[in-house]
Amino acid sequence: MTAASGPLRIELLCDRDGGGVAAQQSALPPAAQDVHRMVLRAFLNSGDAPHRRDLPDSCGVEVDEALDLLDEVDLVHLDAEGRVVVAYPFAARITGQTVRVDAGPVLQAMCAIDALGIPMLAGRDGVIESADPLDGQPIRVECTGGSWRWAPAETVVLLASSAECGVAAECLCPESPFAGLGTAPRPIFTADQT
């Protein structure tokens, strides 16, 4: 996985005016955006990561070229064998953030934020299951008809990033789980610890 713009900083995710991730992604050629949508649909429909050979060269661009562009702007990453391992919000590995949209397959989200995005991306109802990283207590978030129900109700999403790394899959997603705010004592982190 590569990161063309250096270490990821959370504020760069939303920067549409400068060189941030959002600006780079919105500047992708339409054909690369089509390949991106193909990859996302493959995950959503099957629950499995597509392989490069499963993606047809039918979007008016060479798929390998489009996948390279998607990698550069941190949207899709492949392993050495050509299998997609990351296509935000989807993960090809078990992450502890599972999502089921309607009666579809079980999906793995890269992080809690991505899990919340999957029902909205699909435009369907969904159920997210996770566990508190401190005490292992189950967390369930349901989206039904556009309304959200969180159990436990005190559940939050932690957003942090580790320093000195590149793509979101490596430095942001592992640090962004669901967590309950029940009675368990919580560690307090300072800026230099995140």
TrEMBL record:
One MF annotation (Gene Ontology) recorded for this entry: alkylmercury lyase activity
Cited Pfam families: MerB
Domain of life: Bacteria
Protein name, entry field: Alkylmercury lyase
Gene3D superfamilies the record matches: 3.30.450.410
Key words of the record: Lyase
